[in-house]
Write a structure and sequence with these properties.
- There is one protein chain.
- With 453 residues, this protein is an alpha/beta fold.
- It has two domains: 201 residues, FAD/NAD(P)-binding domain (3-Layer(bba) Sandwich), CATH 3.50.50; 202 residues, Cholesterol Oxidase, domain 2 (2-Layer Sandwich).
- 28% of the residues lie in helices and 22% in strands.
- The protein contains 14 helices and 20 strands.
- It has a six-stranded mixed beta sheet.
- Strand 9 and strand 10 form a beta hairpin.
- Helix 1 crosses helix 12.
- The longest helix is centred in the first third of the chain and has 24 residues.
- It is globular and about 70 Å long.
- The relative contact order is 0.16.
- The mean pLDDT is 92.
Amino acid sequence: MVSISISLQLISISVVILNRQTIHDSVSDRQWDDTYDYIVIGAGAAGSVVAYRLAEDCRTRVLLLEAGGPQSVETDIPTNSRSLLNSDYNWNFHTVPQTWFTPYRVPEPRGRAIGGSSTINNMIYNRGNRRDFDLWVTEFGAYGWSYDEILYYFIKSENNTDYNIVSANPGYHGTNGRVKISLNPSPAPILLIHNRVLNELGLPDTDINGPQQLGTTIAQSFIYEGIRSSTGNSYLEPNPFPKNLHILTHAFVTKILFNTINNKLTATGVEFAKNGYVYHVMANIEVILSAGAFNSPQILMLSGIGPKDHLTQLGIPVLVDLPVGNNLQDHPTTSIHTTLNDERLAAPGPLLNVQQLYEELVEKTGPLSVLTSSIFFYTTHSIKDKEWPNTYMYSIAEYVSNLNNTVAEMPAHRDVWMEYFRPYLNRHLLLTSPHLSRIRSYGTLRLASSDPF
């Protein structure tokens, strides 16, 4: 009887995997035209949305170019996010050796697939602080980007499925958007204890996407019915506008094409590589560069827009001398592992076995289907403005099987780290990662050569 049950489960799993992969693969067009109204470079967290919105006008023809491939069942499973960092879904960028970290390089994960980094990230839904957006306006003149102005678009895109969150702050959440948001209904007990301790230390329970960010909460997540909710599957699967939106995967953009029109340098097309060939496609109205924090400046510099001295050194003709690639910032972080003496404080660990895959893919439940994280924002003693947290920390209930992934993420000396973690390989852990929100240091992004590959 057990063998029959397992056989039926395997058949059900196979059917779901086949159906889901068919939907994922359906976004990729095999043919394209020579000219479009708009060309969007990068089908990531922003590019997917931009292409969708433009194509809502059926009179507009849009081409969306993505260097990576479609999503897969592998990217669907929420607890798979860490293993995706060591896969082809990640560009696997690294810094150069750092002054105080020589000779090691720091990994900089970025998604390479439909959905971009929303396909490989930790799925925590956090909009950011009101003051950050308002600063863009007051300090940099980015009018139209104040928090009150963009809140409308956050609400428009959101489909929050948690009644308690929406009813508590209805002016901050949407229920009709394309991106589905949920809350783990059964968080690991250690996370509830962790949050209660933070309450005792003066950090209140809060909705970090509501009116007040300072505080702690079980993380809202980009997950719905056990499936990661990326911008890719939210906006592009299946292609909602197949007649006027063409989507090319494995289309690696090498540069933007420019012409001088009415004495003004104008982007008129794109050069990209696909299947071993190089193609040109032209835009009647606009080329939209939305390739992410690293690939966007890379493409600009390869196209001749960037620091003159740097481009000249690489033999790239300079079209516009601009400080492209400067002012690079990222959030420094570290990890703190705490062993749990009572493993009942951790939720059941995710395993890629038949039973849990059946629960995840067919029943849309089980350990593989949820995010076991909490997140809290706080200010350090040196910060006077307590409404603008300068630090955030997320905590994850770790499982026995996750330490191998932890070691794999180490930039160097993985054999040493394996020895360090060996005593904890059969233990449940609480992983806590503090992040600095407002960093003071700046770096740069530069081309290694003029070869885009």
